[in-house]
Amino acid sequence: MSDSFVPRWLEWAREIQAVSQTGLTYASSEYETHRYQRLTKIAAEIVQDHTGLSRERLFQDFSTQAGYATPKVDVRGAVVRDGQILLVQERVDERWCMPGGWADVGDLPSEMVVREVWEESGFQVVPRKVIGVYDANRSGRPLELYHAYKIIFLCDLTGGEARPSDETLDVRFFAFDDLPPLSVSRTHGRHLAEVEAHLRDPHRPAAFD
């Protein structure tokens, strides 16, 4: 499935990298290993040609991905107070998103979102329900070089106070009809529309791609 948000060259590079990663995992001969390593280099060359990033660094990054290639997981906390949504301003692009980030190995998704909201915003929350599970790379600007899924939790605010972090410049609540510029790879307009829909209808089922 293709998407207008994701350039074809990036789709090709991702697929080639995934094939090479999985192939290297199950390679049974030196010949197979060399052939799959060549695919890794081709993926790095494609990205270099379109971005100017270092081919060597890309190759090293691709090579550190081990095991069968699967999507990464991004978790986000939808925290609403007095009808306004909690957003944090990212240092990397100075745009706004729901607090969250990459899931860590060994942690429950619900535990991850609690920690991410606390670390990025200073607020304590309890996850209440799943708003949606999305293909993150088809929700806006692609998430880095790898395919990812995004899980958005509706969370109840239980304590804390606004506090930026090493990753965030500012923390604020915004009205849904008066949003700041969004960091769309992290929080897209359709994610916030779905949060609003769940607030209007508590029995609404989780959205998914």
If you had to describe this structure to a student in words, what would you say it looks like?
The protein is α+β, with helices and mostly antiparallel strands and 209 residues long. The chain has two domains: 8-63; 72-208, Alpha-Beta Complex (Nucleoside Triphosphate Pyrophosphohydrolase). It contains five helices and eight strands. It has helices at 8-26, 30-51, 55-63, 109-121, 189-200, and strands spanning 72-81, 84-90, 96-97, 100-102, 123-135, 148-160, 168-175, 207-208. Strands 1, 2, 3, 4, 5, 6, 7 and 8 form an eight-stranded mixed β-sheet that branches. A hairpin with a 2-residue loop joins strand 1 and strand 2. The longest helix is centred in the first third of the chain and has 22 residues, at 30-51.
DSSP, total strands: 8
- Major sheet: size, sense and barrel closure? 8 strands, mixed
Helix content: 25-40%
Level-1 CATH class name of the largest domain: Alpha Beta
Please tell me the total number of domains: 2
Bin the strand percentage: 25-35%
Arithmetic mean of pLDDT? 92
The N- to C-terminal Cα distance equals 12 Å
Q: Ranges with pLDDT <50 over ≥5 residues? A: none
Name given to the CATH homologous superfamily of the largest domain: Nucleoside Triphosphate Pyrophosphohydrolase
Structural class per helix/strand content? alpha+beta
What is the string of SSEs from the N terminus onward?
HHHEEEEHEEEHE
Determine the number of helices (DSSP H or I, runs of at least 4 residues): 5
